[in-house]
Amino acid sequence: MSQAQRRAFWTTGEESRLRSLYPDTPMSELMKIFNRPVPAIYGKAKQLGLRRSPEFQASEHSGRIRAENNPGTATRFKKKQ
Protein backbone atom coordinates (compact mmCIF):
# COMPACT_ATOMS: atom_id res chain seq x y z
CA MET A 1 0.00 0.00 0.00
CA SER A 2 1.51 3.33 -1.03
CA GLN A 3 1.70 6.39 1.20
CA ALA A 4 -1.10 8.09 -0.79
CA GLN A 5 -3.41 5.10 -0.26
CA ARG A 6 -2.69 4.73 3.44
CA ARG A 7 -5.54 5.71 5.73
CA ALA A 8 -4.69 8.61 8.02
CA PHE A 9 -6.49 8.56 11.33
CA TRP A 10 -7.84 11.80 12.74
CA THR A 11 -6.23 13.09 15.94
CA THR A 12 -8.34 14.65 18.67
CA GLY A 13 -6.69 17.98 17.83
CA GLU A 14 -7.72 17.69 14.18
CA GLU A 15 -11.26 16.75 15.20
CA SER A 16 -11.43 19.79 17.46
CA ARG A 17 -10.13 22.06 14.71
CA LEU A 18 -12.62 20.58 12.22
CA ARG A 19 -15.45 21.27 14.69
CA SER A 20 -14.49 24.93 14.81
CA LEU A 21 -13.77 25.42 11.09
CA TYR A 22 -16.32 23.23 9.29
CA PRO A 23 -19.45 25.38 9.73
CA ASP A 24 -18.02 28.40 7.86
CA THR A 25 -14.90 27.34 5.93
CA PRO A 26 -15.00 26.48 2.20
CA MET A 27 -14.04 22.90 1.36
CA SER A 28 -11.04 24.00 -0.71
CA GLU A 29 -9.54 25.61 2.39
CA LEU A 30 -10.36 22.62 4.60
CA MET A 31 -8.58 20.35 2.11
CA LYS A 32 -5.43 22.49 2.39
CA ILE A 33 -5.61 22.78 6.18
CA PHE A 34 -6.08 19.06 6.84
CA ASN A 35 -4.28 17.73 3.74
CA ARG A 36 -7.13 15.26 3.18
CA PRO A 37 -9.50 14.53 0.28
CA VAL A 38 -13.09 15.78 0.22
CA PRO A 39 -14.69 12.41 1.11
CA ALA A 40 -12.51 12.11 4.22
CA ILE A 41 -13.52 15.56 5.45
CA TYR A 42 -17.22 15.05 4.70
CA GLY A 43 -17.11 11.62 6.34
CA LYS A 44 -15.50 12.89 9.53
CA ALA A 45 -17.84 15.90 9.66
CA LYS A 46 -20.82 13.56 9.36
CA GLN A 47 -19.43 11.24 12.00
CA LEU A 48 -19.00 14.20 14.36
CA GLY A 49 -22.50 15.49 13.56
CA LEU A 50 -21.21 18.75 12.08
CA ARG A 51 -23.31 20.92 9.82
CA ARG A 52 -22.67 24.00 7.71
CA SER A 53 -23.90 27.28 9.19
CA PRO A 54 -26.89 29.12 7.66
CA GLU A 55 -24.50 31.94 6.70
CA PHE A 56 -22.28 29.49 4.81
CA GLN A 57 -25.30 27.92 3.10
CA ALA A 58 -26.35 31.38 1.91
CA SER A 59 -22.86 32.20 0.58
CA GLU A 60 -21.48 31.54 -2.89
CA HIS A 61 -19.12 28.94 -1.36
CA SER A 62 -21.97 26.54 -0.69
CA GLY A 63 -22.30 25.70 -4.39
CA ARG A 64 -26.06 26.02 -4.30
CA ILE A 65 -27.82 27.29 -7.40
CA ARG A 66 -29.56 30.61 -6.99
CA ALA A 67 -31.63 32.60 -9.46
CA GLU A 68 -29.37 35.65 -9.16
CA ASN A 69 -26.20 33.75 -10.12
CA ASN A 70 -27.62 31.09 -12.44
CA PRO A 71 -27.40 32.31 -16.03
CA GLY A 72 -29.65 30.62 -18.54
CA THR A 73 -32.64 29.97 -16.28
CA ALA A 74 -34.85 32.20 -18.43
CA THR A 75 -34.41 29.94 -21.46
CA ARG A 76 -33.92 26.53 -19.87
CA PHE A 77 -36.61 23.86 -20.16
CA LYS A 78 -38.99 25.96 -22.24
CA LYS A 79 -41.87 24.16 -23.92
CA LYS A 80 -41.70 24.09 -27.68
CA GLN A 81 -44.50 25.98 -29.37
Secondary structure layout:
Layout (H helix, E strand, L loop, with lengths): L11 H10 L5 H8 L3 H11 L5 H5 L23
Keywords: Plasmid
Please give a structural write-up.
By secondary structure, this protein is mostly helical. It has a domain at 12-61. The protein has 4 helices and no strands. The protein is elongated.
Calculate the terminal CA-CA distance, rounded to whole Å: 59 Å
Proportion of beta-strand residues = under 5%
Mean pLDDT: 84
Shape: elongated
Residue stretches low in confidence (pLDDT < 50, at least 5 long) are none
- Number of distinct helices: 4
List keywords for this structure.
plasmid; elongated; 81 residues; mainly alpha
Summarize the structure.
Keywords: Plasmid. The protein is 42% helix and 0% strand.
